[in-house]
Design the sequence.
């Protein structure tokens, strides 16, 4: 895998806004038309009114390809597979900063591994202005727990991935939020302590898929009055360093190329597309 993907991560915010009929954030750079077209094909051109974004840390394209069977549950609910190029440097706060502002790192201000509050317009600000209700569910002290703080929205900060997913299931049942972003980090944690192909890393991939499956099934069960977009949307990939541990941060396809998976759930049609 020597070539880089060409769909920019910075266009995701614009696509979600287009699909939910929300004006995009001020610095958002374009629209991921591939996603918009694929979703509209599923909905016959109708907008969606709920969005669930599952953000598993550090799952790159090569991981999806090497362990393809581990992503069967993901593809079942979210068959729209998009080859996306993340931003440089491929570090968690840098990538999520671009994912949810639609802006490049030089614009949103995070250009290395640091976790300041992003001050520019984000998808969360855009949703709030449009009268919608977003929230973030994340592991305490993670990038997603910090960089989008200081908005008039709800934050649910949990001890670890399992607790974050449990909280998200509760929120889906309540059906109060138009956009839920839930962040998990086990694979990133484990591969840094071992390597991206270790048995513990592979188990973390399984956990991500199981969690996404639970969330999607809950959307089917409880968001019955909505047409919902669900996404399995990682931030960056990984590679193995010469000293054998896993890492990320280089301008190489292993770190920069990612797959996102999206699906449309409309219980009224009694199907997951």
Sequence:
């Amino acid at each position: 895998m020597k070539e880089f993907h060409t769909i920019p991560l910075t266009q995701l915010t614009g696509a979600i806004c287009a699909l939910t009929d929300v004006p995009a954030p001020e610095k958002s750079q374009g629209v991921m038309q591939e996603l918009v077209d694929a979703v509209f094909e599923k909905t016959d051109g109708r907008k969606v009114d709920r969005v669930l974004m599952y953000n598993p840390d550090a799952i790159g394209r090569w991981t999806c390809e090497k362990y393809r069977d581990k992503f069967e549950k993901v593809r079942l609910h979210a068959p729209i597979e998009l080859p996306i190029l993340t931003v440089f440097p491929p570090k968690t706060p840098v990538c999520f900063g671009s994912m949810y502002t639609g802006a490049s790192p030089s614009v949103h201000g995070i250009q290395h591994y640091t976790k300041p509050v992003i001050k520019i317009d984000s998808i969360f600000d855009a949703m709030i202005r449009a009268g919608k209700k977003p929230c973030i569910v994340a592991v305490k002290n993670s990038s997603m727990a910090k960089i989008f703080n200081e908005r008039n929205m709800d934050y649910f900060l949990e001890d670890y991935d399992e607790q974050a997913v449990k909280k998200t299931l509760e929120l889906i049942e309540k059906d109060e939020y138009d956009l839920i972003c839930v962040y998990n980090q086990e694979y990133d944690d484990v591969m840094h302590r071992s390597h991206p192909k270790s048995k513990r890393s592979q188990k973390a991939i399984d956990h991500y898929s199981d969690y996404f499956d639970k969330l999607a099934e809950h959307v089917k069960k409880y968001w019955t009055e909505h047409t919902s977009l669900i996404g399995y949307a990682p931030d960056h990939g990984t590679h193995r360093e010469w000293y054998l541990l896993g890492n990320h941060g280089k301008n190489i396809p292993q770190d920069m190329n990612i797959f996102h998976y999206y699906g449309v759930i409309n219980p009224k049609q009694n199907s997951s597309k």
